[in-house]
Each structure stands twice: as structure tokens, then as C-alpha cells.
Amino acid sequence: MPITVQIDATENTVILKISDQFDYSMHQDFRESYRHENEQGIVFRIDLSNTTYMDSSALGMILLLKEHTDKLGGKVIIEKPNDSVSKILSIAKFESFVTIEH
Question: How many domains does the chain have?
Fold first, then answer.
């Protein structure tokens, strides 16, 4: 499965690990991975260390997650993007919207 969800209730954190391609084909699975998480102050960490490709629909999915998280007073963190994914995030100026940890 291209998305793995790990929940750390003690830290109020959900880790979404994306493997291979992050594109429109993941839309439903990505949405389902977070839509039931409604804890105030929740942190979503998107681990892109194994993501080889990302398209504009993936950027939109992250923005939808950010919108969901903002309502909860939480935070979205993107972790470990490779150089090509990092370049896409930079061109889209995503560092203005979410924290990116390299």
C-alpha cells in the first residue's frame, strides 16, 4: 500500500508515510488517513523519504490536510523529501504553508 498510517496517541501525532508516487490515485486513501482524526492540537507528519514522484494533485491534498489541521489548532510537517520532491515543494512555495524538515 502506498500510504502507511502510524498513530502516536501519547504525542498526539499521526505519521503518514507515502511510498512511491504521490499523485491523484492516492486521493481517497490520503483523505481517509486523516479525516477521522479530530484531536485538538494534533500534528500530522508526512514522511516523504520513500516518495519518488509528486504531482500538483498531491500538493492539493496536502493543502486539504492543512485546512483540516488548522481547524483543530494543529500542525502539518513534511519530512525528508528527496531532491526532486523538495524542488516541487519549493517551486510551489510550500514552506509558507507547512514546516518542511529535510
Answer: 1
